[in-house]
Amino acid sequence: MEEKETTTKTRTIPLIPLRGLTVFPYMVIHFDVGRERSINALEEAMVYDQLIFLASQKEAEVNAPTLEDIYEVGTIGKIKQMLKLPGDTIRVLVEGISRAKIVEVLQETPYFKVEVEERSYSQEVEMGEETEALMRSVLDTFEEYVDISNKISPEILLTVAEIEMPGRLADTIASNIFIKPLQKQEILEAFDPVERLEVLYKILLEEIQILEIEKKINSRVKKQINKVQKEYYLREQLKAIQKELGEDEGLVEEVAEYKEKLKKLKLPKDIHEKIEREIDRLLRLSPASAETGVIRNYIDWILNLPWKKETKDSLDIKKSADILDEDHYGLKKVKERILEYLAIRQLSKSMKGPILCLVGPPGVGKTSIAKSIARSLNRKFVRMSLGGVRDEAEIRGHRRTYVGAIPGRIISSIRQVGTKNPLFLLDEIDKLASDFRGDPASALLEVLDPEQNHDFTDHFLEAPFNLSKVMFITTANTLDTIPRPLLDRMEVIRIAGYTEEEKLNIAKKYLLPKQIKEHGLTSETLQVSENALIDTINYYTRESGVRNLERQMANLCRKAAKRMVEEEVKLIRIAPNNLKKYLGNPIYRYEMANLKDEVGIVRGLAWTMVGGDTLSIEVTPMQGNGKQVLTGQLGDVMKESARAGISYIRSKVEELKIDPEFHNKKDIHIHIPEGATPKDGPSAGITMATAVISALTEIPVYKDVAMTGEITLRGRVLPVGGIKEKVLAANRAGINKVLLPMDNKRDIEEIPQNVKKKMEFVFVEHMDEVLEHALKRGENNEN
Ligand code: ADP
Question: pTM for the complete prediction?
């Protein structure tokens, strides 16, 4: 601290208490005086030396203050001018001279007369570095204050900058800023100039902070007001324009409605804002423009998706078991596996983990099982077929820039079902195609992946939708064509085709009662005999499942209902003899066992898209030069099998007593007359070889033998798939002896007992054994 030298001086002086005003030295100010004591004081001062002591009242409201009500420190002022105003008021102009402190009160009436003490400091002239620095800081801060307060004319800065004395600087600034009386008093009471500067500095800093906050608040409020006003103004203008153009006035209301709805959705902030912007765009565009339509469509989609809506799961394995039984006959194993799957779900309380894939021919109840699962879980059900989906956009949607764009089918289905946690059946996942338009399988993978599907982004929506609560189930006819990465995510449950007996039960207990009810009939008005049902199964349908059977049941009911109404009959009984009347002529004639043993015709067993079937292979050798001609439904794999068969025969010409040059002299024509392309081509191997051998050797084949098995070049017989379906098909065709690869022996367990009883199975390892059981070597091969 610097050395301070002070000198004090006392004087007697009249006092005017000031209300809400603080006068500083060097300050020139005018104020009005009205109170009697103050006027008296003024008069006294004028008579004497025009000096007056100006001290502020602690509280401005007090009308007749005592000394208690007045601050002790005030300013001695010199009266420069007086002006009598109408009434008893006098306006005075005073200049602050110096601060002083009351030391004694000499009188209170007719005016206050006090003795005050003035102090002056030597620092007013000499200044240390510290003071200099403080002055600069105060100046800078004041500049900042002027800048943000914008109530003070910046010219004051020029005046202030020229002041060299710290005390004066403080007083000049203090008299020019807008602060509370108490703060002013604080500055006034600081006799020491450096201390005064410090007090001022502190106050300035505080004020700047407050001003900044104030400014922030102001600008925020202003912005809001501006925005509201601007929007209001623009809307009104828009309305006027639209009115002028004769256009939709309801738009504004519509927009408000959209916004209301949007608010209710409580979407994440960024999405919410994005949609809001889109909604606002509606107001800017002409209602008739194409873009308006596009935006409306978009908003409509967003607002109608179940972002938050979900159903509550009911996880009760017993109930699920009951519902599965209620809706489906048989399928014991399938139901068991499904219940296991659900139990695990229930335990782990999550939808993560593999996705169920129900595999089997059409009409075996894959869809209806999925529906039952949904029902038992209390989830909504939605189904989407993937058959022929080859464009990624079908899964993920088109970008909005694309004309006529809509979301992909996943999102569409979710909207349709209306909850975010439905059971979602992806049908025919094996029919998914892929081409240059992108790979739908990989998009689908994302949909099914629990790590990714919580923010599935549809190109159209451009906003992530959470699919993680969805329970996906897929179906397929075959596993062969399911893209590998998809297959890896799935838990496969196979549903094989039904036997005739199972079909009968399903028809009797489920399909027929259902159709009877749907057609407004009862079991008293329509009776269908068991044999009529069996005939329907055999002559009016050919399938592994029961879809067509169900259709035929509906057919029966429709025709019966019609007859009842037309002919007024009360009861209709349907038996095999009158079945034709209702269903028309039989559609299928089972390709039954051949009527006699024939050369070059062998009954194979195939596993096709619709389940198992029998398949006649006919071979005719013709004079030629060793060509193999294959006709009918033949895939490349079948051709391979034919070649393998022929190679085997060539290695056995001697044993088989076949012309060793047959393959050079004869064309071999192989034909498969009917049936769809078997999906397991190689399984026709032994059938084809047998047919060729029979044709070349002219040894007939037993009429009641069917076979399946792959053949190697050396005649070994390899196992094949679909044994259950194939055996059922043979049984249907009335063939009782079936040759099967030895390695398929364990598959026999799957075959229903009643079928197994009727069949004779021969397990073979080599082509020699096949020939032994298939060829009727009698007198024919003696020559
Ligand atoms: P998929 O989806 O396998 O093609 P669906 O589920 O469409 O077959 O089944 C066709 C019809 O057959 C449905 O009406 C279904 O209820 C019925 N159905 C299939 N299997 C059974 C069964 N085991 N018991 C009762 N009805 C069945």
Answer: 0.58
